[in-house]
Design a protein that fits this description.
The chain is of the alpha/beta class. It starts with a strand and ends with a helix. The relative contact order is 0.14. Helix 3 crosses helix 4 and helix 5 runs antiparallel to helix 8.
Length: 302
């Protein structure tokens, strides 16, 4: 069972947070019983173009022993969209790093999650480690999934602009979207079912077919605010236990991932074979197998 809780983010943006309740007797989902100790809290942060419900598979097993909340970040899922475009000169601020980090901070504080374990994928991982660096009092542990600390550069941003223009919108069906992103997209070297499933879940039925829940223009604006910068300095400021996870065929290379672990004062490394960027979709069992021992260690230490 999933319960929606609204959070007020930076500059008043309404954010949708989703709490995954623990399975109870009779298959029902429930909060801890009276007198039962509070479960340690986890906040799940999706990547660019993602949504909170992308974490459903992970959240189900986490909820057995944790309080689990996933956040639809601004401009994503069912959270509010700040204005962007030529009619909104403050758009870069509305989709900048400060706003995303402040939103995550607001979720932790308003929902009483501290000290929280942050688990972030891609852009969500960057948000997670920036929050851990700035507010160590709120964060107990951190998981970084397939996110680079190095700058990607202007060429990368131009490639994304070109890629967005190639999307054959609207898709006639959700399955058509799944096939295109998993098989037909020019950026796909070989069939990638996890990628197809990821994008199918961010499509919604519009009057003329299936379209993304997000604005592609706003996604480019959000990406513009971090793609040109390196983020090593903030990574080095993270003091809590941190697990860096990469898919063998993901976007985070092995050498950079291992350097991130070296820079982190309490860093650990895990690599998942047969997984690309969408690690938790590609290899959910292997993803759990590397996360669970790390989280167990955090619980034991606390």
């Amino acid at each position: 069972m999933v319960q929606r809780i609204d959070v007020t983010g930076a500059d008043g943006v309404r954010l949708a947070a989703w709490e995954f309740l623990a399975p109870g007797r009779g298959g029902r989902a429930e909060h801890p019983a009276p007198g039962e100790p509070e479960r340690p809290a986890v906040l799940l942060l999706h990547g660019l173009m993602g949504r909170a419900l992308h974490w459903a598979g992970t959240a189900r097993w986490l909820a057995e022993r944790h309080r689990v909340v996933a956040l639809d970040q601004r401009g994503h899922g069912q959270s509010g969209r700040p204005p962007a475009g030529p009619d909104a000169p403050d758009a870069p601020a509305a989709f900048g790093r400060e706003a995303f980090v402040a939103d995550a901070e607001a979720a932790v504080e308003q929902l009483g999650l501290a000290p929280v374990t942050l688990i972030g994928h891609s852009m969500g991982a960057l948000t997670a480690w920036q929050l851990a660096a700035r507010r160590p009092d709120l964060v107990e542990a951190l998981v970084i999934c397939d996110m680079r600390a190095s700058a990607l550069g202007e060429a990368s941003q131009r490639e994304w602009e070109d890629w967005f223009r190639r999307w054959p919108l609207p898709f006639p069906t959700q399955d058509a979207a799944r096939r295109w992103f998993g098989e037909d997209d020019p950026r796909v070297d070989r069939p990638d079912p996890g990628r197809g499933a990821f994008f199918a879940e961010v499509m919604h039925r519009a009057e003329d077919g299936w379209r993304p829940l997000f604005s592609r223009r706003q996604m480019l604006t959000a990406r513009e605010t971090w793609v040109h910068d390196a983020h090593w300095e903030e990574l080095a400021q993270v003091r809590c236990p941190t697990l860096v996870v990469r898919g063998l065929d993901g976007e985070l290379g092995r050498a950079e991932a291992q350097e991130m672990v070296r820079v982190l004062p309490a860093g650990r490394y895990a690599e998942i074979p047969d997984a690309g960027h969408y690690v938790h979709y590609d290899q959910p069992a292997a993803w759990r197998a590397v996360l669970e021992p790390f989280l167990d260690g955090v619980r034991a230490a606390s």
